[in-house]
Specification:
- The model has no long low-confidence stretch (mean pLDDT 86).
- By secondary structure, this protein is an alpha+beta fold.
- The strands form two sheets. It has a three-stranded antiparallel sheet.
- The longest helix has 22 residues, at 33-54.
- A hairpin with a 3-residue loop joins β1 and β2 (63-70).
- α1 (18-29) crosses α2.
- The N and C termini lie far apart (49 Å).
- It has helices spanning 18-29, 33-54, 99-107, and strands spanning 56-59, 63-70, 73-77, 80-87, 90-97.
- It is built from three helices and five strands, in the order ααβββββα.
């Protein structure tokens, strides 16, 4: 039986990865991409460590990341709406954008998948 040809799934062009960020940083500052990737990776690790330690990270001009507790609640199984499921209490991350970011988003040109079709 012949093997099926495997193709990589198409990546959404409006999705940014760490590699994409490091490519931009490397180009802007004329540094090797491997160094830029380590900088991006270290930045995310530091943000996570501070978030876990303090429960709150504020990036002025960008926004605030905060750990919040979601209460336990009853939910419904979307495939069987008559079936109720218990959703346990959990911690989650909330992001509140700064006024500057909200203002910039009002005038930004959004990717096609983010535009509302009205």
């Amino acid at each position: 039986m012949p093997k099926k040809a495997t193709t990589k799934p198409e990546r959404n062009p409006s999705t940014s990865t760490r590699r994409d960020l490091s490519t931009v940083i490397a180009g802007m500052h004329n540094i090797p991409q491997t160094l830029a990737y380590r900088i991006v990776d270290t930045t995310f690790e530091a943000l996570l460590a501070n978030l876990v330690k303090n429960g709150h990270v504020e990036l002025r001009g960008f926004g605030v990341f905060e750990i919040v507790s979601r209460k336990a609640r009853r939910g419904r199984n979307p495939k069987k709406p008559e079936q109720e499921v218990w959703i346990a209490e959990r911690r989650s991350i909330r992001f509140k954008p700064s006024r500057l970011l909200r203002k910039d988003l009002e005038t930004a040109t959004l990717a096609p998948r983010l535009r509302s079709e009205q």
